[in-house]
Design goal:
Layout: H1 2-40, H2 47-72, H3 80-95, H4 105-130, H5 134-153, H6 167-170, E1 172-173, E2 176-177, H7 178-196, H8 198-208, H9 210-215, H10 220-246, H11 257-268, H12 279-298, H13 303-335
Antiparallel strand pairs: 1-2
Length: 336
């Protein structure tokens, strides 16, 4: 009996250590990265550079928040980059002074958001009604959107964005850039929804165990479609910010954000299997990528090597997540 008790205590202790490590490992890595770059990178810890880091991660962060909603339901959205580009070029097309259509910028935002709601519904229906893997469904939507983006732009940048809306991407509130303000507001709202509302509970329940959630009376199909709608709409917001920041829209303007959003989520600890992850995890992942990119730039490291580093981090984060899950299942089977 004493041996059994000791074994049980050991298992509980090991579980606690693993849980602590899993929760805070990336935060510790982030702190170590900041320490390293502050020692070897000139002016890394200056106020100006910290604001720069926040501005650099703002658009990635908005996209990552959208990806998070999809991942929490146990799915993925590989059309994020194409959706950001679509939102940026359609918005630019509607408001550009060089185009025949000259719509009020705020009305144009509503029009683009409406299109993105439709896109979210399409992606959600492809997944829940056909049982098609989310990876294939969203990749198909992404491929189609890429073609649409080139059709809208005729493979040329759409410029001459009105000054009246430039504040969205280039303005400041005091010394803080507007993209950072928008990013912070989205994070606060998303965090509140996920932590304190029934909607958040439904999302976690659906991602943790879809069948159990369905048997409990949840409309899991509606929850999954809603997650894709939120994801698409946040991509639209990212497209608005990006378009007004660059003062133009191009067919490939959001291409890189797809991988960066997925990397930020998985690095922070948001599981690709669904039902696990918080806004804290998301923020840690976002700033790991942001600090890494900024620090390597300060040290004069090539963009190509930055891509290599991000790819390695993505593979490491996803590998750790799946290893831990399969290891837990194996341990449980052995214990039984």
């Amino acid at each position: 009996m004493q041996a059994t008790g000791k074994n049980l205590e050991k298992r509980i202790g090991d579980k606690g250590v693993k849980a602590f490590t899993r929760k805070y490992m990336m935060l510790i890595i982030l702190i170590l990265m900041c320490t390293f770059f502050s020692i070897f990178g000139e002016n890394f810890f200056s106020v100006e550079n910290l604001i720069t880091v926040c501005r650099q991660v703002s658009i990635i962060g908005i996209c990552s928040a959208g990806m998070m909603f999809a991942l929490l339901t146990g799915h993925i959205d590989l059309s994020i980059g194409a959706t950001v580009s679509f939102s940026a070029v359609l918005f630019a097309k509607l408001v550009s002074e060089n185009e025949d259509i000259l719509m009020n910028p705020y009305l144009a935002m509503l029009v683009v958001l409406a299109f993105c709601v439709v896109l979210g519904i399409i992606k959600g229906l492809l997944v829940v009604e056909t049982n098609m893997p989310a990876l294939i469904a969203t990749l198909a939507v992404s491929t189609s959107l890429e073609g649409v983006n080139y059709l809208i732009t005729d493979a040329k940048p759409i410029s001459k964005i009105p000054d009246s809306i430039a504040w969205l991407g280039q303005g400041y509130l005091g010394s803080i850039p507007m993209p950072v303000i928008i990013f912070a507001l989205i994070i606060l709202v998303a965090g509140f929804i996920l932590a304190f509302t029934y909607i958040g509970r439904y999302i976690y329940a659906t991602g943790s165990n879809t069948e159990a959630a369905r048997l409990a009376g949840l409309n899991v199909k509606f929850v999954k479609i809603s997650a894709y709608i939120v994801c698409s709409c946040l991509c639209a917001v990212a497209g608005f910010v990006l378009c007004t920041r660059l003062r133009s829209g191009t067919a490939t303007t959001g291409t890189a954000y797809q991988t960066k959003a997925l990397t930020s989520c998985t690095v922070g600890g948001i599981s690709m299997a669904g039902g696990e992850g918080t806004i804290y995890n998301l923020l840690v992942g976002i700033f790991v990528i942001g600090v890494l990119t900024n620090g390597m730039t300060i040290l004069g490291i090539s963009d190509y090597w930055q891509d290599v580093a991000q790819g390695i981090i993505l593979a490491f984060a996803v590998g750790v997540d799946y290893y831990q899950r399969t290891h837990v299942k194996t341990t449980l089977r052995t214990a039984k």
